[in-house]
């Protein structure tokens, strides 16, 4: 019988995102066992070796490369395997390549574990969260996409930088698709409990409308800009995944903009996208009904429609 005190995570895909996530989890002290799985088993092996040599400097965690059978007793399986965006490629462009890979990956995981939480990071993350939900047969609360947790972090960082405020004191969410149709919910944004519009009015040091437009564009285009310069993005997303894992492992009931299946919430169904959701050891405990402005509702519907069109073209 499994020792309940063991927090075991499996990561499938040990490229830039998977290996950085592994390293971030190694440093976190949150987990006691981490298995790395990749179609390129030597890459997974090398990453495990490299991390293990730093073990005297961190709290003990058993890290090793393995195969799908090592997912057997994992609490969370993080999926980062697949193709990444090339310069100029959108996340949606990756859909066919990565859906094919997911048929293999998800099929292999569920052979050994039907009790874990599946945490999808590979892009297009909302589509692949939906694909994973369908292929796994898991209840919807246990299939989570990292969604716009990263985008919300970028949003908070950029607002904090502009305002000269610690980003941890900025409450602001990006919702919808993790991608080109994502939605900034300015109407919900606040600093120290002060709604953003009131904060801007009081500060009155810039044109707040152009600040909003620039910030949104910078958040939405962040991955393109980074990929253009260094070929991939991985540090911030790894921290976002660590944050989601933390909320699950510590049963925190944290509100995070993860992607999950909607069944009527916001009038949307049979689609995965990000909405502020309560995350605990069960996975998604609740999708929060946040009061969106009319404009934000229109944009969320557009985002859902764009995702739906892709989902309808899927051959599962
Ligand atoms: N959700 C987010 O916020 C976010 C952020 C950044 C990147 N990503 C996505 O994460 C994914 C990984 O990006 P990356 O930069 O690490 O790419 P990468 O090419 O460095 O790594 C991908 C890894 O997947 C492995 N792989 C491929 N097919 C596999 C299979 N069938 N089974 C197991 N492993 C397999 C490869 O061997 C490789 O090691 C991409 O889809 C990227 O777009 C998501």
UniProtKB/TrEMBL annotation:
The keyword Magnesium does not apply. One of its GO terms (cellular component) is cytoplasm. Pathway: Fermentation; pyruvate fermentation to lactate; (S)-lactate from pyruvate: step 1/1. CDD domains: LDH_2. Allosterically activated by fructose 1,6-bisphosphate (FBP). It holds the Pfam family Ldh_1_C. Residues 148-312 form the Lactate/malate dehydrogenase C-terminal domain. It catalyses: (S)-lactate + NAD(+) = pyruvate + NADH + H(+). The active site is at residue 178. Residues 8-145 form the Lactate/malate dehydrogenase N-terminal domain. NAD(+) binds at residues 13-18, 38, 43, 68, 82-83, 98, 121-123, 146. InterPro entries: L-lactate/malate_DH, L-lactate_DH, L-lactate_DH_AS, Lactate/malate_DH_C, Lactate/malate_DH_N, Lactate_DH/Glyco_Ohase_4_C, NAD(P)-bd_dom_sf. Signal peptide: none annotated. The modification Phosphotyrosine is found at residue 224. Belongs to the LDH/MDH superfamily. LDH family. This is L-lactate dehydrogenase.
């Amino acid at each position: 019988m499994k020792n309940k005190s063991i927090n075991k995570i499996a990561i499938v895909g040990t490229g830039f995102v998977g290996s950085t996530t592994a390293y971030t989890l190694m440093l976190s002290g949150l987990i006691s066992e981490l298995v790395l799985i990749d179609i390129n088993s030597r890459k997974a092996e090398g990453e495990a070796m490299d991390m293990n040599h730093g073990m005297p400097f961190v709290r003990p965690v058993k890290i090793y490369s393995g195969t799908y059978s090592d997912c057997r007793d994992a609490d969370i399986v993080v999926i980062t395997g697949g193709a990444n965006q090339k310069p100029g490629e959108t996340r949606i462009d990756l859909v066919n390549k990565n859906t094919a890979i997911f048929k293999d990956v998800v099929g292999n995981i569920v052979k050994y574990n039907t009790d874990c939480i599946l945490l999808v990071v590979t892009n297009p993350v909302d589509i692949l969260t939906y694909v994973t939900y369908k292929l796994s047969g898991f209840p919807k609360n246990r299939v989570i996409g990292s969604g716009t947790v990263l985008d919300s972090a970028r949003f908070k960082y950029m607002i904090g930088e502009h305002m000269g405020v610690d980003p941890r004191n900025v409450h602001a969410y990006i919702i919808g698709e993790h991608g080109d149709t994502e939605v900034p919910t300015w109407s919900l944004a606040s600093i120290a409990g002060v709604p953003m519009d009131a904060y801007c009015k009081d500060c009155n040091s810039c044109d707040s409308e152009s600040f909003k437009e620039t910030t949104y564009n910078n958040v939405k285009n962040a991955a393109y800009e980074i990929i253009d310069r260094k070929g991939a993005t991985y540090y911030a997303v790894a921290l976002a995944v660590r944050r989601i894992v933390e909320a699950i492992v510590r049963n925190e009931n944290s509100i995070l903009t993860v992607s999950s299946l909607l069944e009527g919430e916001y009038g949307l169904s049979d689609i995965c996208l990000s909405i502020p959701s309560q995350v605990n050891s069960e996975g998604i405990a609740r999708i929060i009904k946040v009061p969106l402005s009319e404009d934000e509702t229109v944009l969320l519907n557009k985002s859902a429609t764009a995702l739906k069109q892709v989902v309808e073209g899927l051959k599962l």
